[in-house]
Write a structure and sequence with these properties.
- This protein is α+β, with helices and mostly antiparallel strands and 218 residues long.
- The protein has 4 helices and 13 strands.
- The strands form 3 sheets. A 6-stranded mixed barrel has the order 1-3-2-6-5-4. A 4-stranded mixed β-sheet has the order 10-7-9-12, with no helix packed on it.
- The longest helix has 22 residues.
- It is elongated.
């Protein structure tokens, strides 16, 4: 599915100009790609939000209307956000072709309640997305992973992710994605109990002989 986003060209560069655009409800951006020199543009903040919150999310195919009656197929890249409010303050649009594969980050979606959690463990997410290469029309919205069968101590890796037709995982197959671990509080409690037990054993075996007492009992 493709969405359309209008862009205004001719914006001035520089931080002062960018701040003025943001106050006007616009987001400064740059569009570039093969056979296209970088062009400074601005897009409506609300329209951008709608586009990037469609079903395709951040990997939406965007028909960017740069000039009157003309558009280029793009994808959003290099999003910069406000450190507090989280709103997009700048981004790049990269032109793409429907017949050429592209590299994108796709979110990992965990489903199911793992056996390890029912046993008292917790889910530790090591990475929330994975890099894949695919044609723009074959990019998955997310990678759905069922963790129901995972027990305490189990680790799911890139190589364990489901096969997605038309998409290839680019990360190291041995990279961990999610693991089921024992809560840190329980680990600390068990370690403390172990230390107390060792101290008690040392006290029984290492009793000192009082001065004047015959070690042999005579």
């Amino acid at each position: 599915m493709q969405v359309t986003l209008r862009a205004e060209t001719g914006r001035e560069r520089g931080s002062r100009s960018s701040r003025r655009l943001r106050r006007q409800g616009m987001v400064p951006a740059v569009v570039y790609g093969r056979n296209l020199q970088p062009v400074a543009i601005a897009v409506n903040a609300r329209e951008l939000y709608t586009v990037l919150h469609s079903d395709a999310g951040i990997n939406a195919l965007i028909n960017l209307e740069i000039d009157e009656g003309a558009s280029r197929l793009t994808m959003a890249r290099e999003l910069q956000r406000h450190p507090v409010r989280g709103e997009i303050t700048h981004l790049d649009f990269v032109t793409i072709s429907l017949t050429e594969k592209t590299r994108v980050e796709v979110a990992i979606e965990l489903t199911g309640e793992s056996e390890g959690v029912l046993e008292g463990g917790i889910v530790e997410t090591i990475r929330s997305s994975v890099e894949v290469e695919a044609l723009p029309t074959e990019i998955p919205q997310s990678i759905v992973v069922d963790i129901t069968a995972m027990a305490v101590g189990d680790t799911l890796r890139i190589s364990d992710l489901p096969v997605i037709e038309g998409a290839e995982y680019l990360d190291d197959p041995d990279d961990p994605v999610v693991t089921i671990v024992v809560p840190a509080a329980i680990v600390a409690e068990e370690a403390e109990e172990g230390e107390e037990l060792e101290e008690g054993e040392e006290g029984e075996e290492g009793e000192e002989v009082e001065e004047g007492e015959d070690p042999g009992g005579e």
